[in-house]
Design a protein that fits this description.
heterotrimer, A mainly alpha (about 280), B alpha+beta (about 400), C mainly alpha (about 325), A: MetI-like fold, 2 domains, 13 helices, C: about 325 residues, mainly alpha, MetI-like fold, about 0% strand, binds adenosine-5'-triphosphate, binds magnesium ion
Chain lengths: ~280, ~400, ~325
């Protein structure tokens, strides 16, 4: 028996190790690339022989990159905030109220979540050019909000459903109007859910590439993922591997730290909206 | 403080289910009314209609003479205590209790004063700044009460407010609820499943079954004069024993032997000119060890005792009567509610005897029963042929 | 519920009276719920408006554009051409190659994701040591920007530069490129799949496993006869979503191969026509075709397996 548990512990240890390797190998590789100096960059070694921060200095000296970083942060924060605001309202209604058109809103967000983004690129491109928001923050914020909306609605409505009905009844009995019940009782209780959803929505905006690529033309609104693909080496012959790796690390580290900190909530959020009990 | 009138109130859910039918009740100002009945009989529905949380399909609900059918809960000035307490987890005890006042835009100092008064009454003063999650079950229950009290509403509605407490706490809180209601004199409508609460708390008890009011009356009245088999079986714990029997001449024949009926009952039976097939009802305390009661008038029979439980002050003897089992839809309903719907051959009986009775398990004992306290029900309709107040038996829906 | 209603039905109450009462109940309910309905619609309106404005109108516009010869390089030759763009696209080998590549990547990666996702889910669910650590690190691929991961894989498989490549150059060959694209896709989405499946696994009561073990089932039998059927709803939802997602594959291909060596997906060729080629008519036609394909996949899935849409249940209200 003793031996048995010892064995299974060892087995799990090995399996766990495999999972860790799986998750981190590409991450460490890009970190190690970003730290290699130009002499050893092309040596094909997984770990750097010597460490240098040259690539980081290079990208932070590059206005296009710093601008892109600001764009990324600003656009994603604003889009997350708005998507969450609108999503919270809609999710509450979907989870808690009976009203005509509920099926429509649920179906609509389902359709949006399945929608091929590429199909939007041309029309948005044309419309945004016509309206004059092409290559601006707003031009990206709008599609980001839209594509984040279903995620926000699903995840949040799952959280709303967990709040006991009786609290609303109690609020009504205490003299609250439906909106007051929402505002003063339900919304505060849904805050953890809202926070979790915010992380998920932010990640999904942060991850976007297609819109950032096609709805921008200068560094005015280009976000980091798109900017990375436009990186130039110092000379035309030099491949910008180091700077790209460094930029990749810069936009990855904050998200990874976020995820490590709020692992539990993210797991809850990702699963609650998608699978019903 | 208010007078609440339910006038022919009907509740039908949109899916067609009839939850409450023709409910009539006049609740006097300051009265404490208990609603009892088996699970699913429409108690919560009734309460929610008074609260305004469910709308009324037909009939009228009047508070202080004003029809309030279409008023939102917040405009009815009624407070409710929920079974789950429904405390707001993100607010402190004080904020929970002050919430109704805050919504009513009462100024801060008044809120504070009122919350403190209520907290004092409920011994919650030192917990005012804590969150509900840090309170014990009993304390949470008191906060829920406090939230109802603080705004001095016209009426309290309570839906099984004590059922989540353990037995000991429930007894404590029961007296506290009673005290508070008496002090404040607020009209109260109280739903419960608990026999003791039903018997001790209310001025009047409303017994419901399948959405229909069976009888309304003071606890003692319901106990002594149940209108029908259902009320007889529902009120009282342990519940009344039922045995099928036949009226023959001046007496009655059943598994409890042959017994002569006292004049009072015979006269009542003639008036009711009921059929010959009846169901006898005997309360456990109307049995006695025949040796103790000597030759008092009453019926006598022998039965082997299955189990004896001595409670100190009383002695419970359980025995089984062979032969037919009293059967009726009402009794089936009762059995379902208590979970005793296993059909065995014979009738399980309970007798509450004097503690001096020397009875042991397995003995074949002669028991005596008080024919003067016999309840006799029509085997078909379940109506009480003797003791029940005839008018409420005939029209169970009408209040007094 | 209904027995209760039957019991309490007044003896004289006929059928018509009942129906009338139900009608009254419905009407009353609707009157009472009016405020609620209004609030519900008001709360949903902004979200719905945004989704309609950003989705419905542009998709209609894309369809409209697909009926025109609309090439930004030759703006004065724009004209209505009916369905001829569709004929052009559907008879073009480039489109069908891309379609084949996309379908291949979708099928292979979803199957791999399902298998690996299930394994990972079981590991996360059952591991006896470091469960928190395993779950946390499994989230890392999910959280990493696709483009970042794609660059990592590209560098790893680049000749001389990459630790995986050595002196070979797999990204210059079609099939090895596709394999790497699939690797990148799978790596990133297995954790997400695993999380969805794990939520399903958590719904399988532990006692059921014990009971089956007592009944003499082997671990393998228990997996197929107990776990899989119970987790099936989660599997279907996860597979549906991943299939639709995989069919839209773009980021990885853009970074890894830019569509070289016939590795373009449908999204990639549409992008090339739209943004690089500025041929809006053809690009829009492709967009519409992708949209239709995805709609067909979704409908077939839901019809075939009854995969329920998440969040579509009404939720008990009491
Ligand atoms: N929203 C609803 N829609 C349809 N039927 C309902 C609804 N709510 C309750 N019912 C039905 O109405 C009847 C009465 O329910 P109610 O909740 O009032 O019972 P109750 O007496 O409070 O029972 P309990 O003691 O279990 O709380 C039941 O048959 C129930 O199934
Ligand atoms: Mg109830």
């Amino acid at each position: 028996m003793q031996n048995e548990t010892g064995k299974s512990k060892l087995m799990w240890l090995v399996i766990d190790l495999i999972v860790l390797l799986y998750a981190f190998i590409p991450v460490f590789w890009i970190i190690s690339l970003s730290l290699k100096d130009s002499a050893t960059l092309n040596d094909g070694n997984y770990f750097p022989r010597s460490i240098t921060f040259e690539s980081y200095q290079q990208i932070f000296a590059n206005n296009d990159f710093t601008r892109a970083l600001i764009n990324s942060i600003g656009i994603c924060l604003i889009a997350t905030f708005i998507a969450l605001l609108l999503g919270t309202f809609a999710a509450y209604a979907v989870a808690r109220l009976q009203f005509p058109g509920k099926k429509i809103i649920v179906g609509m967000s389902l359709m949006v979540s399945m929608f091929p983004q590429i199909a939007l690129v041309t029309p948005l491109f044309r419309i945004e050019t016509a309206v004059g928001i092409f290559d601006t923050w707003l031009g990206l914020i709008i599609p980001y909000i839209t594509f984040a909306m279903p995620l926000a609605i699903y995840t949040l409505s799952a959280f709303f459903r967990e709040i006991p009905w009786e609290l609303e009844k109690a609020a009504k009995m205490d003299g609250a109007t439906p909106f007051q019940a929402f505002r003063q009782v339900i919304a505060p209780l849904a805050m953890p859910g809202v926070f979790t959803t915010a992380i998920l929505v932010f990640i999904s905006c942060w991850n976007d590439f297609l819109f950032a690529l096609s709805l921008t033309s200068t560094s005015a609104a280009r976000t980091v993922p798109a900017a990375m693909s436009y990186f130039q080496g110092a000379t035309t012959f030099e491949k910008p591997t180091g700077p790209i790796a460094a930029a990749a690390v810069v936009i990855t580290i904050p998200i990874v730290i976020f995820v490590l900190l709020f692992q539990r909530r993210i797991v809850a959020g990702l699963t609650s909206g998608a699978v019903k009990g | 403080m208010a007078e609440i009138v339910l006038d022919n109130v009907v509740k039908r859910y949109p899916d067609g289910a009839l939850a409450v039918d023709n409910f009539n009740l006049e609740i006097a100002d300051g009265e404490f009314i208990i609603l009892v009945g088996p699970s699913g009989c429409g108690k919560s529905t009734t309460l929610n209609m008074v609260a305004g949380l469910e709308d009324i399909t037909q009939g009228e609900l009047r508070i202080d003479g004003q029809v309030v059918n279409d008023k939102a809960p917040k405009d009815r000035d009624i407070a409710m205590v929920f079974q789950s307490y429904a405390l707001y987890p993100h607010m402190t005890v004080g904020e929970n209790m002050g919430f109704p006042l805050k919504l009513a835009k009462v100024d801060k100092s008044t809120i504070q004063k009122k919350v403190h008064e209520a907290a004092e009454m409920l011994e919650l003063t030192q917990h005012l700044d804590r969150k509900p999650s840090n309170l014990s079950g009993g304390q949470r229950q008191r906060v829920a009460m406090g939230r109802a009290i603080v705004r001095q509403p016209k009426a309290f509605l309570m839906d099984e407010p004590l059922s989540n407490l353990d037995a000991k706490l429930r007894v404590q809180m029961r007296t506290q609820v009673s005290r508070i209601q008496k002090t404040l004199g607020t009209t109260t409508l109280y739903v419960t499943h608990d026999q003791t609460e039903a018997m001790t708390l209310g001025d009047r008890v409303v017994v419901m079954r399948g959405g229909i009011v069976q009888q309304i009356g003071s606890p003692q009245h319901l106990y002594d004069h149940p209108a029908n088999l259902f009320v007889a079986g529902f009120i009282g714990s342990p519940s009344m024993n039922f045995v099928p029997g036949r009226l023959e001449g001046d007496g009655i024949v059943s598994a409890l032997g042959e017994a002569r009926l006292p004049d009072r009952i015979r006269q009542a039976l003639e008036r009711g000119n009921g059929s010959r097939d009846v169901i006898l009802g005997v309360r456990p305390e109307d049995f006695e060890d025949a040796r103790i009661n000597g030759d008092k008038p009453g019926g006598r029979f022998s039965a082997p005792i299955d189990v004896v439980e001595s409670m100190g002050s009383d002695l419970y003897a359980y025995f089984t009567l062979r032969g037919d089992v009293a059967s009726s839809a009402e009794l089936d309903d009762l059995a379902k509610d208590t979970g005793n719907d296993l059909h065995t051959d014979g009738t399980a009986m309970t007798a509450r005897l004097d503690p001096t009775a020397r009875i042991r398990q397995g003995d074949n004992v002669e028991l005596w029963y008080n024919t003067d306290k016999l309840h006799i029900f029509d085997a078909e309709s379940g109506r009480n042929l003797v003791g029940g107040d005839s008018q409420s038996a005939a029209n169970a829906g009408t209040g007094r | 519920m209904s027995t209760q209603a039957d019991l309490s039905r007044p003896a004289g109450g006929g059928h018509d009276a009942d129906e009338e009462a139900v009608a009254i109940a419905r009407k009353r309910a609707s009157e009472g719920k009016k405020a609620e309905a209004k609030l519900g619609m008001m709360l949903c309106a902004p979200a719905a408006l945004v989704m309609v404005a950003v989705m419905a109108y542009p998709i209609a516009y894309a369809f409209w554009l697909s009926l025109f010869r609309a090439d930004l390089r030759t703006p004065d030759q724009n004209e209505f051409v009916g369905l001829s763009n569709y004929v052009t696209v559907l008879s073009s080998p480039i489109w069908w190659t891309a379609f084949g590549v996309t379908a291949f990547i979708t099928v292979v990666s979803v199957i791999l994701e399902l298998v690996l996702g299930m394994l990972l889910a079981i590991v996360m669910h059952r591991t006896i040591i470091g469960r928190g650590l395993v779950r946390t690190s499994a989230l890392v691929p999910y959280a990493i920007v696709t483009v970042v991961a794609a660059f990592s894989w590209r560098f790893a498989w680049s000749q001389d530069l990459g630790w995986l490549a050595g002196s070979s150059a797999p990204l210059t060959d079609r099939w090895s490129s596709i394999a790497i694209i699939i690797l990148a896709e799978v790596w990133k989405t297995v954790p997400f799949m695993a999380l969805l499946l794990m939520a399903g696994l958590a719904l399988v009561p532990e006692d059921l496993h014990k009971a089956a073990a007592m009944d003499g089932g082997s671990a393998w039998q228990r997996f197929w006869m107990i776990t899989v059927p119970l987790v099936m709803p989660s599997i279907l939802v996860a597979v549906l979503f991943r299939t639709l997602d995989a069919f839209r594959v773009f980021d990885n291909i853009f970074v890894l191969t830019s569509g070289a060596n016939e590795t373009s997906s449908v999204s990639m060729v549409a992008y090339n026509n739209l943004i690089r080629g500025l041929n809006l008519g053809i690009g829009s036609t492709m967009s519409v075709l992708i949209f239709i394909t995805i709609a067909i996949i979704a409908v077939v899935f839901t019809k075939l397996f009854g995969a329920a849409a998440p969040g579509s249940d009404e939720g008990g209200r009491r």
